[in-house]
Design brief:
Layout (H helix, E strand, L loop, with lengths): L5 H11 L1 H8 L3 E3 L18 E5 L5 H38 L20 E2 L6 E2 L1 H15 L3 H8 L6 H4 L5 H10 L2 H10 L5 H19 L20 H6 L3 H5 L1 H15 L5 H9 L21 H5 L3
Antiparallel strand pairs: 1-2, 3-4
Helix pairs in contact: 3-8, 3-9, 3-12, 3-13, 4-7, 7-9
Length: 308
């Protein structure tokens, strides 16, 4: 690796940590190849094995640029997810709260299968989805310090739906949506311009996973979703921006999903365009191309795509 300033490199390693930075230069390491020059795959992961040497053109300064680029991506994602999270909680409170101010306490809104006990195959423990959600809801409510929550608690007032959602994380809101009966899910979906409740459920799970990585400062520039996000056939926005399965599994696909949901929050939002321009600022490093984000490896592709 090229190191132009050894003192700066030592300082950055002491600030960030060797193993955290090593995740950013991993893709720059040379590949182990066989006699026919084909990459040798690891038997366990089925990914190419890496050597301890680096590809030509790998510099420590560019690694730091990639590290900072990843931080900017995380901040951009968190900005958008905040708006989606607040909107989701508001929509759920409106759609369920108008039917019953304390619908969040009523099992009658929940899919019957999620009210039943079942045995966890991994642990052997008896579990209940509705009971688990209620327990987590009570924990989040207990540790919430929002004024509206404290006022209701101090005055022994029943907390209506539109109050308790102020204590919810996007994960808790997503789980509650997943527990609801179909007709309630559909009423929420319509507020997002989506007809298929399963699509929204899959998107919310994926966004929650990505949000958690951002909140814990984990690397996302080459992020791959643990579960492939569902597609939305026939949706003009999705069909315009998603052109491959690789895209929907990686950060670019997640950004398209986030942008699609943002249409219901702010139709004139410039977030997606700004995110594309941010992608175009990715540092140039060997082995670190746009395919890691879910885009074709074309110079300036994201930025130019949005200048149509």
């Amino acid at each position: 690796m090229e190191i132009a300033d050894c003192e700066r490199a030592e300082r950055k390693l002491s600030q960030i940590g060797y193993y955290r930075l090593s995740g950013f230069w991993y893709s720059c390491r040379d590949l182990l190849v066989d006699a026919s020059a084909k990459p040798v795959l690891d038997e366990r992961t089925r990914k190419p094995k890496r050597l301890d040497s680096f590809m030509p053109g790998t510099s420590f300064d560019c690694i730091i640029e990639l590290y900072l680029f990843d931080k900017k991506l995380r901040l951009s994602v968190l900005d958008a997810v905040e708006r989606i999270e607040v909107h989701l909680r508001t929509v759920i409170a409106h759609e369920l709260g108008r039917l019953d101010p304390v619908a969040h306490e009523q099992a009658s809104f929940i899919n019957p299968r999620d009210l039943l006990d079942y045995v966890n195959k991994k642990t052997g423990n008896v579990q209940n989805n509705w009971a688990q959600w209620q327990a987590e809801h009570k924990r989040q409510l207990a540790r919430c310090s929002e004024d509206c929550i404290l006022w209701h608690r101090q005055n022994n007032k029943t907390m209506p739906f539109w109050v308790v959602v102020e204590a919810w994380s996007i994960g808790l809101a997503s789980q509650y949506y997943g527990l609801l009966k179909g007709r309630h899910q559909r009423s929420i979906c319509r507020r997002f311009g989506i007809e298929n409740p399963k699509v929204l459920a899959g998107w919310l799970r994926g966004i929650n996973d990505l949000r958690n990585r951002c909140a814990h400062h984990s690397r996302i520039w080459n992020y791959t979703s643990r579960n492939p996000l569902p597609c939305l056939p026939g949706d003009p926005f999705m069909e315009r921006w998603i052109h491959s399965q690789a895209a929907i599994q990686r950060l670019y696909g997640m950004a398209v999903v986030i942008a699609r949901l943002m249409l219901s929050v702010g139709p004139n939002s410039s977030w997606f365009r700004e995110f594309a321009i941010l992608l175009d600022s990715k540092p140039c490093l060997p082995g670190c191309d746009f395919t890691a984000i879910g885009l074709p490896d074309l110079e300036g592709f994201p930025h130019h795509l949005f200048l149509e």
